[in-house]
Automatic annotation (TrEMBL), chain A:
Domain of life: Bacteria
Residue intervals of the ABC transporter domain: 11-242
Top EC class, one word: translocase
Protein name: Spermidine/putrescine import ATP-binding protein PotA
PROSITE patterns, A to Z: ABC_TRANSPORTER_1, ABC_TRANSPORTER_2
Protein family (similarity comment): Belongs to the ABC transporter superfamily. Spermidine/putrescine importer (TC 3.A.1.11.1) family.
SMART domains: AAA
Gene Ontology terms, MF aspect: ABC-type polyamine transporter activity; ATP binding; ATP hydrolysis activity
UniProtKB/TrEMBL annotation, chain B:
Membrane topology: Multi-pass membrane protein
Keyword Membrane found: yes
Cellular compartment(s): Cell membrane
Source organism (scientific name): Antarcticimicrobium sediminis
Name by which UniProt lists this protein: ABC transporter permease
Amino acid sequence: MADTSSNDAFVEFERVQKSYDGEILVVKDLNLQIPKGEFLTMLGPSGSGKTTCLMMLAGFETATHGEIKLDGRPINNIPPHKRGIGMVFQNYALFPHMTINENLSFPLEVRKIGKSDREAKVKRALDMVEMGDFGGRRPAQLSGGQQQRIALARALVFEPELVLMDEPLGALDKQLREKMQFEITDLAHRLGITVVYVTHDQTEALTMSDRVAVFDDGRIQQIAPPDELYESPQNSFVAQFIGENNTLEGTVKELSEGLALVQLDDGEMVDCMPVNVSKVGERTKVSIRPERVEFQKERLKEGAHMLKATVKEFIYMGDVFRTRLSVAGNDDFIIKSRNAPDQVRLKPGQQIEIGWLHEDCRALDA
Amino acid sequence: MSDLKSTGPQAAAAPPPAGEPGGPVLAADGTPLKRSLNRALRRQKLRALMLIAPLLLFVLLTFIAPIADMLFRSVENQIVSETLPETVVVLHSWDSESGEAPAEPVFDAFYVDLFLAQEQKLHTRLGSRLNYEKTGMSSLFRKSGRRVGKFDTDIYTDQLIALDPSWKDPATWVAMMADSGDRAALPFTARTWDRWVAYLATEGDDPAKTKIEDVLFTTLYLDLRATNGSGASDARITQAAQAAAGFETVSLRDQFADADKNWMDPEVWGTIKAFSPRYTPGYFLNSVDMQKTPHGIETRPENQQIYMMLFKRTIFMSLVITLSCVMLGYPVAWILANLPTRTANLLMILVLLPFWTSLLVRTSAWKVMLQQQGVINDTLVWLGIVDDADRLVMINNQFGTIVAMTHILLPFMILPLYSVMQTIQPTYLRAAKSLGATNWTAFWRVYFPQSVPGIGAGSILVFILSIGYYITPEIVGGTTGTFISNRIAYHISSSLNWGLGAALGAILLAAVMLLYWAYDKVVGIDNVKLG
């Protein structure tokens, strides 16, 4: 795990645990440092504890054990309204009985900011999300995307240094979501704010974040920048959860620095990068991304191990071809190839041989 | 692979049929689209109507019709003009400000009317009706009804029979009254005869065999004096007309004065005149402590004013009850809305429990609790907070009514509040807090405004229910805690002054509608949510 020195951490979770019923730990021993200005995403399936972590940071849940620090100051006993953290909710939580202007000036009013100052700040925040003309409307009169922008503006209008976002784009359609993803990251970097973003959408996590913390079972499974997360998953959960992934099960036969020879369950041998395996004879899950699989031998290195495969299904997806193969007893082995003029279209039933660079094939925990 | 891009779109489909620009839009078969839409919807509408028809009929028969009847009764006043048709006409020209009782012709007409009314036993009903407007009228009518048959009008009978004994024979009267010339010569007699015959018909008697009453001889004499019998074909009439000038007469005015001197009181006649129209605002005036007198509309004397006070009290107490329901119900609804569903459902049973208990039992229970030898007083005395000598009076007054009714109507406040609060997501409060609001500010500025529709719905429900409440104030209200509805019930079942009861009810209905309208104007009925 990336271990940032705790001195420059803006937000810090220190051995935080959380249980709702005294029997099951929802969050188990969470340690996390977030430097100032970082866009950190907590990614994980539902029930993985990511939202609980966010709520503890916001102050709506108390940590059962451990300490949460904000700018070096423990905040466990500070009520939410004194933490000065901006928050964007999944359903936006715009106050339906107030106009957009009233919604935005609410955090300023409770901070006793003068009227003229307030108006200027509200206007600036609305302009920032390009909603300057909508101040007099009510939330119900806006579309989902517009409400989302207002929610964002409201979380930013009182100039917090830390903004939390709880699956803010979940209710939007795909196109709008992609547009908003860009706008949010752009805004966050422009303002230099620290953002903790919770989502279960891995594409969102990969495209938006500086770093992604993958949650499962109350723990951070891996915390890394998106490219590292995708290309070098540390365990089979992360490999499976992030992006599409092929898994083959086998046993480690040979192990050396940077290379492992794995015998698959049907007897075939493959070259792998050892990540989570420590000794010969250990069970392992071999993980390989669909787009890194090659079926044209001339593109591979001399001496690479090849596997026999049978084409089961060919799916035309426009920009890529997706082919389902049967490999070493696994009928769901997927390969992706770019739709180029010279690309080969495989036919169902065709017998081929596949292979890969051993760096792309990772031997992970079983 | 190369044919990928060449597959262009097929030939564009023909544009959908549409009417000429500006003209009506046409359906596929050429009929206007509106008409074919209506036809398509008619079956659905008809089916929907059929489905609600039983309820519609039920509501119409058992709800709308009685209300319409009640509203009609509050202005209906046909009893005077139907019982005293002759009197009402003649009385019209009498000036009620003259300070004197009307002249002879009124008494002549009244004699006929009263005689026929007492034959049909209608005069006591009229007396009761007029007694609502002026005390003493009831006994005046009853007493005069007994006397009217014994008036000295038999002298006309005797003199006419002496002139021609055939007057005694009812059959000759039947023949005479069938002749249009004779009828024209004797208009008053003809009208009276018709009423007499109609009455005999209801009794099953034959006019040709029933003794001719003095009243008919009286009208005959009066007609003979007025028209001289000109145009009559019956020779007896001409003969009688000549003789009538010399008849001995009797003053009906004196006869009535003799029967009861109150008949000389112009106020009595003024009241009859004031209430002779078929429709009257009298009941409504009574309902607001005013009255219609011969001299116009006046407020009632101070010591007879009761209804305005009752209306004010009803509205005031309903407001107090509504307010206490809000104060007590809001926290309960809040807790219910914020508990886990399972617990909330369990507690909801406690809220609904009173619904499953008889209203009378609940009200009587409060009697047990609140009376001077009751549970609360006993406890307070036992604790030494209250001295045994002056135990608190908490029942049979306003306090008792307010306590009992707040308890009974509380579920009607909690239920709409609860269902509205359930729709307020907890994230609103969280959002407010994350924006820097304290718990109180978050509640007051974010949660409370969103719960106002529930308060509105609950308040309207409780207020309208309590403004017309009857049983509880009747049992625990005593004299100071009764509502206008108790007075209405009194008029419907005890005093039998249905017109006044109806007018009070109509005013109550109007007041509720007015408040509803005002609420709509101020808060907006769209803001009322029952769930």
